[in-house]
Amino acid sequence: xxxxxxxxxxxxxxxxxxxxxxxxxxxxxxxxxxxxxxxxxxxxxxxxxxxxxxxxxxxxxxxxxxxxxxxxxxxxxxxxxxxxxxxxxxxxxxxxxxxxxxxxxxxxxxxxxxxxxxxxxxxxxxxxxxxxxxxxxxxxxxxxxxxxxxxxxxxxxxxxxxxxxxxxxxxxxxxxxxxxxxxxxxxxxxxxxxxxxxxxxxxxxxxxxxxxxxxxxxxxxxxxxxxxxxxxxxxxxxxxxxxxxxxxxxxxxxxxxxxxxxxxxxxxxxxxxxxxxxxxxxxxxxxxxxxxxxxxxxxxxxxxxxxxxxx
Length: 311
Fold this sequence. Notes:
Strand 1 and strand 2 (55-62) form a beta hairpin. Helices cover 37% and strands 20% of the residues. The N and C termini lie far apart (38 Å). The model is unreliable at 1-14, 16-21, 242-256 and 293-311 (pLDDT under 50). The chain has one domain (2-294): Alpha/Beta hydrolase fold, catalytic domain (Rossmann fold), CATH 3.40.50. By secondary structure, the chain is of the alpha/beta class. It has helices spanning 2-17, 28-41, 89-95, 117-120, 127-140, 153-164, 190-194, 211-214, 217-233, 249-254, 275-289; strands at 47-52, 55-62, 71-76, 101-106, 146-151, 170-176, 201-206, 259-264, 293-297, 300-304.
């Protein structure tokens, strides 16, 4: 474990030292401090070293514990935090494996939380390579049914990635408290991203969430409706064939394919006290809309699980 963490430290700093050749907006010192802390508290079997732009970054991986793997979830933390953040991320990454979903929480490029939002916009440039690295890692484990789950700015980053990378290998998207910033960077305006995602989407937020999240619920819904309508008109239904919602005639007519917006009353942006309910809602939705091929090894597959569950 010490060797892995030290290597991550070195490559994070190399991102600064080789700045003439590699553009890195992330705060390498902040990432290093978290790799130090997590290396002391996380079990060695969970720590994985991933690579993007020729630099290593941290991932925390937990295998399915049920013996009936449904797929894997790549989990993206919010701004200024890390892949074991006690708010939302740690509860989710440890709960999903108990329901058949392996988890890989990855370190996103970051700036300190107190930095102006304009400083966070360039971080979006570094996100695609990190997510694709995570997808490749999971494929190497024999997992080809991969979903993306993001919280806060991580959800906004995830949506922007999916909108720009239609062939990413991701099968569904869960956005938890998706934040929206219209005038800073086009990728930070989540409705625009949702309008271009051709995948099942769960948009979940708290009743006491940030104003930024609650006041844009209608804009996100309308954007997802447009995306569903476009998919229907162009007969691009392949991403939705495993979704129960996609099979309903009224769904196809409305263009509202496999999108659900769900409020958790009483929850704020951190979901403290609502961790179990948040996990339950996400697991239920994944079972209905993203249950995949059960895999035990890269060479062995079983028929898709088409069972339904109420989110």
